[in-house]
């Protein structure tokens, strides 16, 4: 466990109930965890258990019913959909979150150039999103996320819409990033291999209302490769837990 003093993100006793006049849905039930400095915490759980709801609460897109989220530093988010603005070039999309009052035009374009290089898109600054492949779009979205120099990146299934090969390249890319950048990551995924590959810890959520069923510390050196056989025992245990959860539905 991370000590509270070094935690970048503290999620404390989060519960969420969606209520309408007729229905009341308990989605999150007393979820607490911390994310340390430079730590990657992956969240996995059965489909529909409340992962995105938790993500929205942590990223403050939504309010919890009870509980608090405390973070230090700058938060950035990335979703399954890269959400680039189609009428802007890649350059302008990447610069989108920068504060125009804080940088001169030259500084902005230098920054954009630097981050496009990091995601290997330096040749595509003047292209429009529709001219990019799915993986390139997601890399542009990553550059747009990184350029604001976040301390914490929250990712909700950022690679799940991509083909297997591109996904694997971006997973490797995130690992390279971790070596070069002092960033903490919360990564939501339904792909157990991805969670074990990227996570320092994997939190397994129960079916709805989601609470944390178990926590796995992934004690494997980095960089990891997705076909490394030492991932397998973790994958097996976590998958078994998830299958047990899913069976409870019936
Ligand atoms: N705004 C809302 N109002 C009412 N119910 C909601 C709302 N948002 C989500 N829910 C309900 O909360 C539950 C969890 O949804 P959520 O999207 O968080 O699950 P998830 O774990 O991300 O699913 P998936 O694996 O499909 O991405 C679902 O039953 C959903 O219907
Ligand atoms: Mg979701």
List the helices and strands and how they pair.
Elements: E1 7-19, E2 24-36, E3 40-44, H1 51-58, E4 66-71, E5 75-78, H2 90-95, H3 105-118, H4 134-146, E6 152-156, H5 164-180, E7 184-188, H6 192-198, E8 201-205, E9 212-217, H7 232-247
Helix pairs in contact: 3-4
Bound molecules: adenosine-5'-triphosphate and magnesium ion (MG).
The site of magnesium ion has 2 residues, from helix 1.
Task: Walk me through this protein's architecture.
By secondary structure, this protein is an alpha/beta fold. The protein has 2 domains: 4-73 and 151-247, Rossmann fold, CATH 3.40.50.300; 84-149, no CATH class. The chain has 7 helices and 9 strands. The strands form 2 sheets. It has a 6-stranded mixed sheet with strand order 5-6-7-3-8-9, sandwiched between helices. Strands 2-1-4 form a 3-stranded antiparallel sheet, with helices on one face. Helix 3 crosses helix 4 (134-146). The longest helix is centred in the C-terminal third of the chain and has 17 residues, at 164-180. The structure holds adenosine-5'-triphosphate and magnesium ion. Residues 18, 25, 27, 45, 47-53, 190, 208 line the site of adenosine-5'-triphosphate. Magnesium ion binds at residues 51-52.
